[in-house]
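# step 3/5: fold
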Amino acid sequence: MRRLSFFTIVFLAQFGAAQAASDLCAAAAAGVEASLRAFKPGAKAGAPFHGISIRNAVAKKPAAGLDYGSTLDERTLKTFPLTDKDRALFKESVNRIFRTGGKNGLALLDAEAGTAHCHSPILFSLAGPEPKALPLPEPADPYDLCAYGGVALGAIGGAPFYVQSEDNFLDTDRLKIFAATGEKLAKVCAIEAKYAMGYETAETFCAQPELCRTYAGRAAQWAQKFDESRGRVADPMMTPATPEATPADDPTLFPIFGAVASRLVPEPFRFDGEESWFAAPGDPRVDVLRIGAANQGPANMAQWEAFTLATLYKSGQPVASFVVQRRRAAFVSLSVRTGE
């Protein structure tokens, strides 16, 4: 029998590992896509809105063994060997435990803390007589595990994997998958969902109520065109206009005509300073449209990037304001990226 060279053996081992990683990613992607296509948002009156996302979809139709965790109690926490420093993480935080792969699989402990909702995950192998801590991959930026970032575990055909997730409930919904091989984790791919976006006028403020009724629907259309065309409004009736000299002390402040506050965000809306102005002919009650993104306030207070602001003016005075909210409307496709 012909003996294989050392380099041939290494090549075959690497080829086998690459094939296994490819199979894992393909199977995970297929399961996640099936869940997304089957997902229907919650529609009960008065119930919280459960928009489409990978996490919400697999909660209704499980896929790829994905586990986003359950409450970690003190009794369970004590069964894991933690350093004093690590144990301190779990004292004033929201604590969760994730499991995958059965009794010889993996367990993940996570402490979520602070106004930025930052995660501090600790991974354990359950294969030995007692749980053994395993090193986790460092995120590209520590803030990647805060706010819209998170963690999870999964398994395909008994092969466990670790997940760093990122979901801003707008354009980004991504899983970075790290395969577990022995006591090491290796990134094998990223799965990313693409969604069609919907626009709706979520709030109106008008000096004359009839203006709100006339323009609420059109404001959503303007915001969608503004976002999709990067600063233009594809309306043949509208042409770029010279910015108005705003009468307010703060020219970025969004006019709300004496209302106490917006019900959507905890502090006043402001334009971001990069808005566009358009002539709005055809209605003697208005002559100029101002439209732009909402200024980014504290990230822990609101999803500021979801809002587009539009104000109509007449003779230099604001007469109507509209807050348009962008959100996911439907799942479109799923992509798998390797080698990142």
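# step 4/5: annotate
The longest strand covers residues 184-206.
# step 5/5: archive (pending)
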